[in-house]
Amino acid sequence: MVKGGLTTAAFRSYVSDIQEEVHQYFARWGNEGEADLYSAMCELVINTASRTLLGQDVRSQLNDEVARLYHDLDLGFTPINFLFPNLPLPRNIVRDRANLQLRELFVSVLRKRAARLEKLKAEGKEDSEVHHDMLNSLMNATYKDGRSLSEVEVAGLMIALLMAGQHTSSTSATWFGLYLLRDKEYLAKVMAEQESIFGDGKGGYVPLDFEGISNCDRLEYVLKEVLRLCPPIFQIMRTVTEDVYFNDMVIPAGSYVAVSPSVSSLDGKAFPNPNTFDPDRFSPERAEDSTEKNKGLYVPFGHGRHRCIGEPFAYLQIKTIWAAILQTFELEPVGPMNQPNFNSMIVLPETPCMVRYKRRVPL
Fold first, then answer.
1. Are 231 and 212 in contact (CB under 8 A)?
2. pLDDT, tens only, 145-196
3. Is residue 308 part of an annotated ligand binding site?
4. What is the mean pLDDT of residues 71-86?
5. How many CB atoms are located within 10 Å of the residue 110 CB?
6. Would you tell me how many other CB atoms lie within 10 Å of the CB of residue 302?
7. Which domain holds residue 22?
8. How many CB atoms lie within 10 A of CB 251?
9. Alpha helices (H) along the chain
10. Is 29 a domain residue?
11. What is the model's pLDDT at position 62?
12. Which of this chain's residues are annotated to bind heme (predicted)?
């Protein structure tokens, strides 16, 4: 039901939308100053994901209040809730209230689109706004028995779609900046690549496009290295469906097994100098993420049949966001490097994540 928004054809149209969202968001920053990078990434990720994956009519409903509601939902991502999800804890009450408000918002959007399409159909007209987003896919989806999804089910899936990548992508996008801005030598390589691909020959840049972003290898190396050093998911769990015999042990069906990207990606045998920020370890010459070398130790998006289907979108989204940011601002970090915060199910950086910025071309 959701794969229709994750095709190459869809991605081609997403890049310009993401760049536009970045420019609109950072208009509020002015020409120079200091700001919290994590707060900016949280809003940008949800704004760009909603516009590209769910459509402009969903994006137009989003504001700072919606970002707050998603933050309230995040409060429910604590270890205890995996065992006792309905405990009457204050954070769970806030979580449930936010879920209800978001559901009402998305049901409203759904009804408006359905009413517009029904009106056009009654008038014998075609839809002038051809929708290829996931909302359209969900509205037309059916179960195996032919039953359509209810409004509440569609709204729930819309909430989940944004929720699934919001926290992980905003966290990774923040670590991207925290690491890259502290490595001036590699930042210079990234900017040289931006000039080579998008430079207009006059000191500026042409608009971003899918082909160009796909060729931004340095940006991809940085993102891969950030995901290695600070994977947002510190453990990936699976249920054993049948008895498994392994190293003279029996893992019985119904058991849970887990791997930790936070541990495996710091294995010095696969990744020399594992604690060092070294994006070029992912270049074709070194290819330290190849399964031949690390035997599956690099798994920020999981592995096997249940690997995250949103991985290509996450790369496109974060690379495009940072290409647009770096072309717009000169940036430097403020204060010492932020440390990981392991208090929730997503490994966030300790906040605030302050950066100092100066617009390359004043407003």
1. no
2. 999 999 999 999 888 888 877 889 999 999 999 999 999 999 999 999 999 9
3. yes
4. 82
5. 20
6. 16
7. 3-231+310-359
8. 15
9. 8-26, 37-49, 56-59, 64-74, 79-83, 90-122, 134-140, 151-180, 184-198, 210-214, 217-229, 261-264, 291-294, 311-328
10. yes
11. 75
12. 308
Tell me how far apart the alpha carbons of residues 342 and 235 are, in angstroms, rounded to a whole number.
12
Cβ neighbourhood burial of 117 (10 Å; 0-12, 13-18, 19+): middle
Structure tokens at 321: 């966001």
| pLDDT higher than 60, residue 74 | yes
> Is 278 part of a structural domain of the chain?
no
Kindly report the average pLDDT of the chain as a whole number: 90
pTM as predicted: 0.90
State the Cα–Cα distance between residues 321 and 299, nearest whole angstrom: 23
Contact 208, 312 (CB under 8 A): no
CB 213 within 8 A of CB 316: yes
- Please report, for the domain that includes residue 181, its CATH number: 1.10.630.10
Residue 86 lies in a domain: yes
114-123: per-residue pLDDT in tens? 888 888 888 8
Structure tokens of 168? 């992980």
- 272 in any annotated domain: no
